[in-house]
Amino acid sequence: MSLVRNVDSSTRAIGRDVAKAAPAQPHAANRHEEGSRGLLLVGLFKMSKAIFFGALAAGALHLIHQNVGELVMRAINDVPHMDPEGRLASFIMDKADMVGAHQLRQAGMLSFGYACVCVVEGTGLLLRKVWAEYFTIVLTAGALPWEIFELIREFSWFKVGLMFLNVLVLLYLLWLVRRMRIRENQEAVSFPA
């Protein structure tokens, strides 16, 4: 009986010594507890972009075998207080006549591809994956020159708003990644292996 007590007490003592020597490091799932709200918002923003571009792709691919000019003319006639012979209706009709099956197919495929990328980004961010943060940073930073070019080529407040949102997402993720890296370095110094 005393042998069992001695083994049990020495096992507990060894367990305490191990716990003192190597304190538990934070689990990877808890890495983003403070930044989880921001990651949730960015992830939901990316998922909403995926839904939008997925719907855009479906619409473009649906219109491939349709007469776009005729569909636009019917839509213009259905709008109350719009003159089908007016300047706006003529402008819309001219633009619709320039859209062919090839452009619709390209727009549909590009929109579908971008929707898939947004799903990957959004899912990774919602699951708080570190790779998703870096993936989103690289893609967002890579798209900024194109967004600036498009904004200079043709200014619109919608483009300004989208670029502003993307810059906010980029700055937030850069801040979050930097903060987590500083914290991990401090923990590595505090808990040497």
Q: Which descriptors would you attach to this protein?
A:
mainly alpha, elongated
What does this structure look like?
The protein is mostly helical. It folds into two domains: 37-127; 129-193. Helices cover 79% and strands 0% of the residues. It contains seven helices and no strands. Helix 3 (68-78) packs antiparallel against helix 4 (87-97), helix 5 (101-126) runs antiparallel to helix 6 and helix 6 (130-153) runs antiparallel to helix 7. The longest helix has 34 residues, at 157-190. The protein is elongated. Mean pLDDT is 82; it is low at 17-29.
The span between the termini is 38 Å
Number of strands: 0
What's the SSE pattern? Answer: HHHHHHH
User: What profile does the largest beta sheet have?
Assistant: none
In total, how many domains does the architecture comprise?
Answer: 2
Q: What integer value in Å does the Rg equal?
A: 28 Å
Number of distinct helices:
7
What average pLDDT do the residues reach? 82
The level of helicity is: over 70%
β content, as a range?
Answer: under 5%
Structural category is mainly alpha
In terms of per-residue confidence, which ranges show pLDDT below 50 for 5 or more consecutive residues? 17-29
The global form is elongated
